[in-house]
Structure prediction request, 672 residues.
Amino acid sequence: MAVGAGSIELAGLVKSFDGFVNAVDGVNITIPDKAYCCLLGPSGCGKTTILRMIAGHDDPTAGEILIGGENVVGLAPVARRTAMMFQSYALFPHLNVRDNIAFSLRVRGMSKAARHKAADAMMEKVRLSEFADRLPAQLSGGQQQRVALARAAITEPRVLLLDEPLSALDEFLRIQMRQELRSMQRDLGITFVHVTHTQLEAIALADLVVVMEKGKIRQAGAAREVYASPKDRYVAEFLGGQNVLTGQVRTVNGHHAVVAAPTGTGITVPLTPGVRVDVGDPITIAVRRDDVEIVGPGHAPDAGEKTASVSSRVTAIEYQGYFVKVMLDAGNNADFVVYVSERKFFTNPVNVGDAVLATWPVDHARILAHDH
Amino acid sequence: MNAAVRGAVAVPPVSKAVAAHAIAPRAGGRPWTFYVLSTVFVFYVLALYGPMICIYVLSFQDVRGGLVFPMRGLSLHWFVDLFTQVRTGDVKGSFERSIKLAAIVTVATVIMSFLAGWAFRRRFVGDGVVFYLMIGSLVAPGLVLSIGVGLVLHFIGVEGAWYTSAIGAQLSWTLPFGVLVMFAVMSRFDRAWEEAAYDLGATRWQTIRLVVIPILAPGLVAVALFGFTLSYDEFARTLQTAGSLNTLPLEIWTMTLNITSPSLYALGTVTTIISFVIIAICLGAIASIQKRRAVRVPAI
Prediction:
């Protein structure tokens, strides 16, 4: 078989709850076997609905869901060999850890001795053995999550679906459990689909990040790809870390376009293959915040045509530890932020109110596709 | 108080003890409203339980006892009388009928309230109308309802009995309460539990048996308690529907009309004790379920 057991293919997937609005609006994506995939988007973008449709808790209005090459629409979760971890974990409050984990074996008719043996082995694996007789209410958030994971994993699924698994935890635990999820995925060797609205979580974990908005996929790709090369303004702004500038194209020559900047001489950007640019068009460009350098007052900008720049004024400075966040007022683009490494900032500090020049290598700017 | 403090400060050579006493906060530093409301509350409790307590106390008189204070002697005479004298009425029979009736009504109330609560997890067409139809019978005056049921039975030519028409009439009283309690219980039921069970391969029936009912158990016990106590002392709705044989409340009512001895009070004491025992059993069951699930170890 060409496709792995845990590969997921969504084809023309549509879900409408009321018959008028499509919560999921024509989604096509292939998630490879044994991949860690994050569905990323704001609340209400349809990411949880997609997860629930893969899990078999909601039926699609139209389209197909293929797992391991076979259409699973209409099948029960067990028949799909998927398992879901719920946002609240949904641990059974009246059952202790062992019985929670053994639940799926119990409903399958496995004897008490056999299922307890299997549950004990699973608890060993996720370091829960000492909590076997506790009830969920007697566990911490992180422990509860491990029980939920173990309860799902014992069904030996080929796909594990996680609905905002870290949202119930505090910041410290979230980062710790994030790593645990990733190593669990490697150990189990199965596909994970993880729904989140936190971009840091998505890019830290995922092999495949799927950025969604209003029931549609805006961009899908490796974490570095969606972060460093966002396709359009929405993705750039949702993933963060980018300055998005708009302007009119003044000239186009071969490999570059020059955009009329609100201040300064004009910004040169390399053309993106596939994005058509004509003189006079309004275009949107993105520059990573950590690619921008601040040239303080009294310093001449780096000479040479390989640099683009915007002259501006410092509006705020935030110390962030390993870097310093400098906010600039760059004309109509109110939100222009520069991440300066901590050492670099303090060798040549600027103050709020200083007139500065924000510069970056021309090749580091990108033209974004038009928003729909 | 303030004056005392000022005095203590103004006059240095006071003893340490006096100063400490003056500065220490007043023992009962409460506003006057506390005393007024406490008094009202005490009268409220007296009015609530006083009459019942009088009955219980008077039931322990000896053979000379009468229906009013003062108390004459102290014995269990009237309790013995209750269970030996035929003239006191059919206490044993009516008690048995009442217990059986209450048991049947309880089971029916628990099952129907559970199913209604289950149905109302989601909205459906006409759910508001159905809800108000269920609750509406609470508003209907019991005696009128009872007469109505009696009339209908007469019209269709069916003989009323405690095990037929009375069950129906009592359910019109216990079900609305049961459903309301069930709604409160269901509001804390997380549907994700149900979905998790389905996700893990449980059938619908396994989900209900292994997940839903155990989680809802304390609430179901509460519904049962309501059903039992409401049925056990139901009077108005049972009056015209119990047929020729009396339930206990009807029997007591009859006795008040023709018995003039403290055995009536003894009966009241006995039935109250039975009620309390049943309530204690139910609350104990709920408490033990809750305790089992309580957070005993602080989260780490």
In short: DSSP finds eleven helices and 20 strands in chain A.
